[in-house]
Amino acid sequence: MIVKSHKLPRALAALCHDIFMAGLSFVLALGLRLGEGALPHFTNHLLPAWVLFVAVCGIVFWATGLYRGIWRYASMNDLAAIVKAVTIALMIYVPIAFLTTRAVDIPRSSVVINWFVLIFLLGAPRMAYRVFKDRGLRHLMERSRHLRVPVLVVGTGDAAEVFIREMARDRDGAYEILGVVDDRGTRVGRSIHDVPVVGHLNDLERVVEQATQRGGRRPRRLILAKSLDREAMQTLLGLTEELDLDIDRMPRLTDFKINAEGATASGIEVRPIAIEDLLGRSQAKLDRNAMRNLIANRRVMVTGAGGSIGSELVRQIAAFGPSRLILFDNAEYLLYGIDLEISEKYPQMSQRAVLGDVRDAVRLNVTMAEERPELLFHAAALKHVPMVEANPIEGMLTNVIGTRNTADACRKHGVDAMVLISTDKAINPPNVMGATKRLAESYCQALDIAERAASGTRFVTVRFGNVLGSTGSVVPLFTRQLANGGPLTITHPDMTRYFMTIREAVELVLQASVLGANAPSEEAGKIYVLDMGKPIKIEDLARQMIRLGGLRPEKDIKIVYTGLRPGEKLYEELFHELEPLVETSHPSLHLASPRTTNLELLSRSLDDLNAAALLRDQDTAAQHLRRLVPEYNKASEQPEDSVVVAL
């Protein structure tokens, strides 16, 4: 019969080691005190005292939890625990020795010497083992390495250097950096503050294995220290799923607060990968001084101020210090929310919240007569395609007539510039929402041409695609479906959309406003179009969101295709074929040459549309809309399967 042997538990083995060291320290301390006479004195008088000392040390070491730590991760915390345990042991031993033998044969100074010797004998083997395992002294002074999360940093730029330096400075930091992954592969083999650049992003599996072997701990997380393009992010998400790695990102360098010594004032907190990180967009360079000059010390009004775009416009405008900010919206709670937020953040700024509807021309004119705004940003609109398709009259009244009311009020009350927020759905629209926004664009374009000639109000139209997280967009829908355990619903596997973040969209709207307000007369009526990058496949977006949730597409969360909804397109466009692209002085902004209409004829046609809409005559109103937006008439007559517009 073969008896299976069991290894002595590591804690018990460590206890035996420390008891031996306690006994040895007693003898060594005596030797240092008495010299050659130490051994005879020990054997003749101190053997019982030695047994008592070893017993006390063994009990105290175990009771104080000296063996909860792991030698592999021995640190300054362990050394502090040893000092504490040795001190307690001697404080217990000395009174007992006096009570039992009055310690007449124990040299008093040997107790002090024993304190130093025993600390050394207990601490040195632990630290030596740590140095041997780490193959160096780099982590020796750390207090809690085993509590740190082992990570790999992706990127070799300034952000990575700041993160590595901060983790080295903060001995209680949350992360242990095992290596740096170079997304370009040009710095492999080099190091940043003694942290090696271990490989290329494409070799992540090998990098993880080598980092595990070198550091003795497997990386558990990737920290993105730079933005990657969309294809690289998609590849990286797949690799992290296969390797069972979490993935976080660092904040922008502009978000760090640096103190006088050059260190971050409150440390660096990495953040989960957000859906906007998957866009792979580089941050646009903005002329913030020009934005401030446009807005500072001026009276600014925002319609639709409570909506997703409108509220972000309000936040960014408020930061530039307008003399007065007028918030106009028909949604009571949303208006209350943004008004409260701005009043708390900018208590000294003059502002007013006006509950009103852009359909109500009287309310608009009274408000503008009272406030006399110099700039107006028109973000009020109905924008959810299926909802407007089911309620077309409401879309016409808000998006078309509401825009006309706002623009006419701007002319009447001498507003310097009105900025219309438009959408890529206005291009070849097969739906009511897109057609109404195109008609709103047409009216503002015609007004801009007329007013430029008379040196009146300037009308700037800005067009962009979907913004992540806005009301009615696909991302909040996917988020809600993920929270409910799926499935994620997609109308068509080939559907693509342009995306950007709300913050970036509004920043570029303000940048376009600067250009439009100062544009020469030959640019009258042209539409500013934001550079939306490449379109994103909605199916890819859904799969990436599932992975960001730590789940697996089609295994943990299903994806279901529901079919195109009424008025929905597979592909969106940013320019019409009759709108030649014109570059601007800003690389993220382009100009679409105008397809203009005679202002007088358009105004009469809008009167007819308004009359039919107010009578709720849906057929007549639809006929007017089709006549005024010919591409809507053409697109909406196509069978559903052919609603595909080439990019």
What do you see in this structure?
- With 647 residues, the protein is α/β, with parallel strands linked by helices.
- Helices cover 47% and strands 14% of the residues.
- It is built from 20 helices and 22 strands.
- It has a nine-stranded mixed beta sheet with strand order 10-9-8-11-12-13-18-22-21, with helices on both faces. A seven-stranded mixed beta sheet has the order 3-4-2-1-5-6-7.
- α14 (432-453) links the parallel β12 and β13 (458-464).
- The longest helix has 27 residues, at 108-134.
- Mean pLDDT is 78; it is low at 1-8, 253-266 and 637-647.
In terms of structural class, how would the helical and strand content be classed? alpha/beta
Identify the strand order in the major beta sheet.
Answer: 10-9-8-11-12-13-18-22-21
How many DSSP E strands? 22
What's the overall geometry? Answer: elongated
What average pLDDT do the residues reach? 78
Largest sheet descriptor: 9 strands, mixed
Helix content: 40-55%
List low-pLDDT spans: 1-8, 253-266, 637-647
Q: Whole-number radius of gyration? A: 36 Å
Beta fraction: 5-15%
How far is the N terminus from the C terminus? Answer: 78 Å
- The DSSP helix count reads 20
List keywords for this structure.
647 residues; alpha/beta; nine-stranded mixed β-sheet; 20 helices; elongated; disordered N terminus; disordered C terminus
